[in-house]
Design goal:
265 residues, mainly alpha, single chain
Length: 265
């Protein structure tokens, strides 16, 4: 039973090398409690293993919490509370060791390891993995792509800045979705003014371009109107569609004039 429980399985992986490596080390330390020793030494062996587990688990939890903080994981505080509960449970188990017979001790240890590590990894740490995958997919939509370039540095830099600021605002979660979209609207309006002035100076500003940018602002304003006050999931979904669709197509429509732009530069 303990041997099966303490076998690392790839299904426990959360896809972060450092965290997975630490999880594997926890399994290795825990396995030491069930190594073959004389009956008189078994209780001492288990107690020493628990002591090492508590020590390494504290280290691991600190590292995992640092990682979650760096990634701006929104459920960090709740996850930290779970970590604290596990440490409390491990310390309580260690205090009970002198009261337990060896068979009971090993049985309860196997059960506790299931709760402390396997259940926590598969139920709670896996939530971190799912969130990170979603975050990174979304971040990819807000990355600068050279296909967007107008080959005019002031405008390209301004658009890069809009993408970067929008991504940082979303991840920081310091504003409500409505506030974030309102700020994005103001940034885009200013960007389009600068863009229009540049295109006008090159005598390539077209009515179609003006209509396209008006449509984009209208779409964004409609998003603001329908956005529920604090719906982060809706914000991320709608912004992904917005950037991937309307803004990208708008940039591509401008690139249709690339020959004219290049000639006039």
């Amino acid at each position: 039973m303990p041997e099966r429980i303490l076998q690392w399985k790839e299904e426990y992986s959360i896809g972060e090398e450092e965290i997975d490596s630490q999880h594997k080390r926890l399994f290795e330390i825990a396995a030491g409690a069930f190594s073959i020793v004389s009956p008189s030494e078994r209780a001492t062996k288990v107690k020493e293993t628990i002591r090492r587990l508590v020590e390494y688990t504290r280290f691991h939890f600190d590292e995992e919490e640092r990682f979650m903080k760096e990634e701006l994981y929104p459920h960090l505080d709740t996850h930290k509370e779970l970590h604290e509960e596990i440490i409390i449970s491990m310390n309580a188990f260690m205090r009970r060791i002198p009261e337990m017979k060896i068979q009971e001790l090993e049985k309860e240890l196997a059960f506790s390891i299931q709760s402390w590590f396997i259940d926590h990894i598969t139920q709670k740490d896996k939530q971190i993995q799912a969130w990170l995958q979603k975050k990174r997919r979304f971040e990819g939509l807000l990355e600068w792509n050279e296909e967007y370039a107008l080959k005019y540095e002031p405008l390209d830099s301004a658009y890069k800045a809009i993408l970067l600021e929008t991504k940082e605002m979303i991840l920081a979660r310091e504003e409500t979705p409505k506030q974030l979209l309102a700020r994005l609207e103001q940034n885009l309006i200013q960007h389009y003014r600068d863009e229009a002035a540049y295109l006008q100076s090159k005598k390539i500003l077209t009515p179609e371009h003006l209509l396209a940018r008006k449509k984009i602002i209208d779409i964004l304003q409609n998003l603001i109107k329908k956005m529920r006050f604090n719906d982060q999931n809706m914000l991320e979904r709608d912004l992904a569609l917005f950037f991937q669709g309307y803004l990208t197509r708008h940039k591509h429509s401008l690139l249709m004039n690339q020959e004219s732009l290049s000639t006039s530069l």
